[in-house]
Write a structure and sequence with these properties.
Blueprint: E1 2-7, H1 18-28, E2 30-37, H2 40-52, E3 56-60, H3 72-81, E4 87-96, H4 104-121, E5 125-130, H5 133-142, E6 150-152, H6 159-167, E7 170-174, H7 184-192, E8 198-200, H8 222-233, H9 237-252
The protein binds nickel (II) ion (NI).
Length: 255
């Protein structure tokens, strides 16, 4: 049974056929999905899906690309939602230096505010990092994020930085890129980081694993990620599925 810790079933790419997508996930052995919201519409939809399906949970946060749009009312709304029984984490949040819609200083401020909120409401955080590793690690340290811990989502960095994240009480989540032939770093991370600190995810509809790369991603494909990790570690896919599921349940406080 596979736990997809990061899916955007709330994205418009699934408007037409989300029912079939959910059924394919269940048929493939997906036990749970965390649908991650990152702005007003996607958060609203994540909550809706979590309320409609027992095995779906929601994470709510403000994406760094849109940091410039987050108001105090939005932050207050995140706080209210954090009390919802199906909300298991805050995020995705973090820093994204690839897109330039939001200035770095505003991204950092919005990131810090959400970490402070997570500590207040005692929920783990889901970190989005694009070309901003050093600043993210620094802010996580300065804000004492280890108190709540969380997930380095779709981790693509080095083994050394991953180990630093483990020390800060974070799990390393691997997605589709670990299956790409030229993905040297994710494969090293899958090999070196112990199974009790790894999670699996799709980040669907993005980052589709091999051999479906280029097509829309969906939660059923999380199995391909687990199979790749199993091959790299020389263990069975059942062992990877079981360990990553237990890790996710522990982190999210799911019975
Ligand atoms: Ni995402």
């Amino acid at each position: 049974m596979f736990f997809d810790t990061h899916a955007h079933l709330n994205a418009e790419q699934f408007n037409e056929d989300y029912l079939e997508v959910i059924n394919r996930a269940l048929e493939t052995g997906v036990s749970n999905i965390v649908v991650v919201g990152f702005d007003r519409p996607t958060i609203t939809r994540a909550i809706e899906l979590a309320e409609n399906y027992e095995f779906i949970y929601a994470a709510v946060g403000w994406h760094p690309v849109d940091a410039v749009d987050m108001t105090d009312a939005d932050l207050e709304w995140l706080k209210e939602l954090s009390a919802h029984p199906k909300v298991v984490a805050l995020g995705e949040m973090g820093l994204d230096y690839y897109w330039d819609k939001s200035p770095k200083e505003i991204q950092k401020e919005v990131f810090r505010k959400q970490i402070k909120l997570a500590k207040q409401v005692k929920l783990p955080i889901i970190i989005h990092n694009r070309e901003a590793t050093a600043d993210i690690v620094e802010i996580l340290k300065e804000e004492g994020a280890a108190e709540v811990g969380g997930i380095m989502h779709c981790y693509s960095g080095s083994v050394e930085i991953a180990q630093e994240c483990l020390e800060m009480n974070f799990y390393i989540s691997l997605g589709g890129p670990v299956t790409f032939k030229n993905a040297k770093k994710p494969k090293e991370v899958a090999t070196e980081i112990p199974l009790d600190r790894l999670l699996i995810e799709t980040d669907c509809p993005y980052l589709t694993p091999h051999p479906f790369r280029g097509k829309r991603n969906e939660p059923a494909y999380v199995k391909l990620v687990a199979e790749q990790i199993a091959e790299l570690k020389g263990v069975s896919v059942e062992e990877v599925a079981e360990a990553t599921q237990q890790n996710a349940k522990r982190l999210f406080g799911i019975k």
